[in-house]
Amino acid sequence: MIILKLIGESFRFASDALRQNKLRTMLSLLGITIGIFTIIFVFSAVDSLRAKLQESIDKLGSKTVFIQKWPWGGFGDYPWWKYVNRPEPSLRDHALLKDRLEYAEGVSYEIFANERTVKYRSNSVEGAGIRAASQDFNKTWNLEFQEGRYFTENEGRAGSPVVLVGAVVAEGLFDGEPAIGKTISVMGRKLTVIGVFKKEGEDMMGMSQDKNIIMNLNFAKGIMDVESGRYDPTITVRGLEHIALDEIESEIRGAMRSIRRAKPGAEDDFALNKSTIASNQLDQMFDMVNIAGWVIGGFSILVGGFGIANIMFVSVKERTNIIGIQKSLGAKNYFILLQFLFESIALCLLGGILGLFLVYLVTLATKAGGFEITLFMDNIILGIGVSVGIGTISGFWPAYAASRLDPVEAIRS
């Protein structure tokens, strides 16, 4: 109890000192405020961007593998010359994979054409994405409908002129009217709408179905070359949930090498892409941004820390005779040390809180813009922790010097 009372009294001494020197206090914490603001703002922006991108990546599915010509990660030392002569995934590859894979919940063949115009009477939607997919598309992707249904087996097999549309396409074409049963024009062909996807909102990686339309693959064969590289043909395999991703990938690789008749020891002539590749690339990119944030904000905090230490030495000098009186009345060394240490920590903590408040104001401002930044609790804790750490480091030596003063000499000063 005595120790707690002494600590409380030390804290009151520190509070009084800060109140008596308001201007000096504000100037001292300015460097800490700028440093904490810089670091936490960068981290908050990066974490918000990471969360939005990760949300998009999660749509790919943790047990989903994409068989494509090109591996993901087309930057840096990307050996494109190794992949340019690879064959595109074909309908033959898809048909044989469906028969051979035991760990697959669904295997779909997909192509995509972007920036197309879709029409209904006098209304049109420009920049729509057209996707053609085989029957298993609803097994390899999570589809939710606000109207209608998915293709039936008979519709897919017969290549019926039916189509699924995204929410934004439906809004642009039908002005809020029911979409089911209406006939739209796509690439010069008439198709009947049988389903409308639920609205997903903006997607930073373009994986939202809001502005897409989906037709069955057998119908698409009549209007485009579904094996052409310009449509980015992809075979999507979603594995069974109880099977490890490595086992699913290994089975796919073995089956594809057998289908392509790859010789033992020869490199694969296909790429197996998965969500973990994109996640790892994001982690590497954002780690570099975080380091940049630490460097930029670190210089400001370093300068602020020196400023705090300087002010604390001045504060010790001003109160030297008071320290002497306290020690002559029986104050212990740790009492004097805590008194100045608490003052230093309080200065840095005030600066850190002010920096966090500025970040919070920025997050409110970004809500009016296109990209919303969120101040996560982890970043708040980090800001407070850095403030306390800098306060402890900056204030320790002045506080230690004060605690070692000789009481007689201190009173005489």
TrEMBL record:
Transmembrane segments: 27-46, 291-313, 334-360, 380-402
Topology with respect to the bilayer: Multi-pass membrane protein
Listed InterPro entries: ABC3_permease_C, MacB_PCD, Macrolide_Exporter_MacB
Domain ABC3 transporter permease C-terminal: 295-407
Domain of life: Bacteria
Localization: Cell membrane
Predominant location category: membrane
Keywords: Cell membrane, Membrane, Transmembrane, Transmembrane helix
The organism of origin for this protein: Pedobacter psychroterrae
Record-level Gene Ontology MF annotations: transmembrane transporter activity
Domain MacB-like periplasmic core as annotated: residue spans: 25-253
GO (cellular component) term, any one: plasma membrane
Name by which UniProt lists this protein: ABC transporter permease
